[in-house]
C-alpha cells in the first residue's frame, strides 16, 4: 500500500530535506519514525528537496508499506515520535503508482522579509532594512509569468534536462508587518526562488530597472542575476496533485 504524507517542518536545525551520510535531515527523521512504527526499513520519496535552513508548510512524500494501517493511526504514531520541529498534517492512501515528485502539478513558495528589527522572527524571516519600492518589484515580478528559460536564476552546477519553468503566480504583498513574495509554478530549479528574490530586491532598491530585470531573464546566465537571499526566509508552501491519485 502506498501513502502520501503531508509534512510541515522548521528547517533551522536540519541540513535540508534529503538524507545525507553525516548530517541530520528531515527525510532521515521521518524514515526512522516510520521504520519503528511499521517494523520494517521504510524509505520515503519527497516532492522535491529543500536546502539547509529552508522551511516547509506543505511538503509531500510517499512511502510503501506491506502492513496496512489506518491513515489516522500512522499520523498519530509518527507525530508522537518526531521532534517538535516536524509535523505530519495528514496521511492518505494513494494509487500504487502515485509519485510524490513526478505527479506534482504545481508547487508554491513564499519568501518572508521583515524591515523592522524584531527578535521574534530570527530564523523565520529575512531582516532587510533598506527602503523598497514594492510597486516596482511587482511590476518586475509580472515579467516572470508564463513558460520561460530561467537559467539566470538556477544554480550553476545542477543536473536538469532544461531550464524551462512555467510560472503561474508571482507577486509581493504585505501582511503583519512582513513583506512576502508569493510564487507558484509547475516546477522550480535549484536555488531559483532565492535568486529571484535577491534580484527583485535590487529592483526594489532602484539598483536595477524593470527593463534590466527582463534582460537578466533573457541572458540565461546566473552571473547576471542578483545574489541568493538567505534560506531562513523561504517556505515551501504548497504541492498540488490531481485528486485522481487519492483512494
From TrEMBL:
Listed GO MF terms: RNA binding; tRNA pseudouridine(38-40) synthase activity
Name of this chain's protein: tRNA pseudouridine synthase A
Family designation: Belongs to the tRNA pseudouridine synthase TruA family.
Domain of life: Bacteria
UniProt function note: Formation of pseudouridine at positions 38, 39 and 40 in the anticodon stem and loop of transfer RNAs.
Oligomer and partners: Homodimer.
Residues that hold substrate according to the record: 109
Catalytic activity of the protein: uridine(38/39/40) in tRNA = pseudouridine(38/39/40) in tRNA
GO BP annotations, alphabetical order: tRNA pseudouridine synthesis
Keyword Isomerase in annotation: yes
Active-site residues (renumbered): 51 (nucleophile)
Enzyme Commission number(s) from the entry: 5.4.99.12
Record flagged with keyword Isomerase: yes
Domain Pseudouridine synthase I TruA alpha/beta, chain residue ranges per copy: 8-103, 140-242
CDD domains: PseudoU_synth_EcTruA (cd02570)
InterPro entries according to UniProt: PsdUridine_synth_cat_dom_sf, PsdUridine_synth_TruA, PsdUridine_synth_TruA_a/b_dom, PsdUridine_synth_TruA_C, TruA/RsuA/RluB/E/F_N
Enzyme class at the top of the EC tree: isomerase
Amino acid at each position: 500500500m502506498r501513502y502520501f504524507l503531508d509534512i510541515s517542518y522548521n528547517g533551522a536545525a536540519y541540513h535540508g530535506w534529503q538524507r545525507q551520510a553525516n548530517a541530520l535531515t528531515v527525510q532521515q527523521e521521518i524514515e526512522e519514525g516510520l521504520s519503528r512504527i511499521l517494523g520494517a526499513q521504510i524509505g520515503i520519496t519527497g516532492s522535491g528537496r529543500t536546502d539547509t535552513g529552508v522551511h516547509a508548510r506543505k511538503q509531500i512524500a510517499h512511502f510503501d508499506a506491506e502492513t496496512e494501517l489506518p491513515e489516522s493511526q500512522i499520523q498519530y504514531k509518527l507525530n508522537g515520535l518526531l521532534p517538535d520541529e516536524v509535523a505530519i498534517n495528514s496521511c492518505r492512501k494513494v494509487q500504487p503508482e502515485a509519485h510524490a515528485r513526478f505527479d506534482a502539478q504545481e508547487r508554491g513558495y513564499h519568501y518572508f522579509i521583515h524591515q523592522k528589527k524584531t527578535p521574534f522572527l530570527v530564523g523565520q524571516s529575512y531582516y532587510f532594512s533598506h527602503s523598497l519600492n514594492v510597486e516596482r518589484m511587482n511590476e518586475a515580478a509580472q515579467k516572470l509569468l508564463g513558460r520561460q528559460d530561467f537559467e539566470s536564476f538556477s544554480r550553476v552546477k545542477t543536473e536538469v534536462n532544461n531550464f524551462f519553468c512555467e510560472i503561474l503566480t508571482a507577486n509581493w504583498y504585505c501582511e503583519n508587518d512582513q513583506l512576502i513574495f508569493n510564487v507558484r509554478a509547475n516546477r522550480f530549479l535549484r536555488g531559483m526562488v532565492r535568486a529571484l528574490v535577491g534580484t527583485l530586491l535590487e529592483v526594489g532598491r532602484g539598483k536595477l530597472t524593470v527593463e534590466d530585470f527582463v534582460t537578466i531573464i533573457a541572458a540565461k546566465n546566473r552571473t547576471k542575476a542578483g545574489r541568493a537571499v538567505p534560506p531562513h526566509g523561504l517556505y515551501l508552501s504548497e504541492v498540488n496533485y490531481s485528486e485522481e491519485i487519492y483512494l
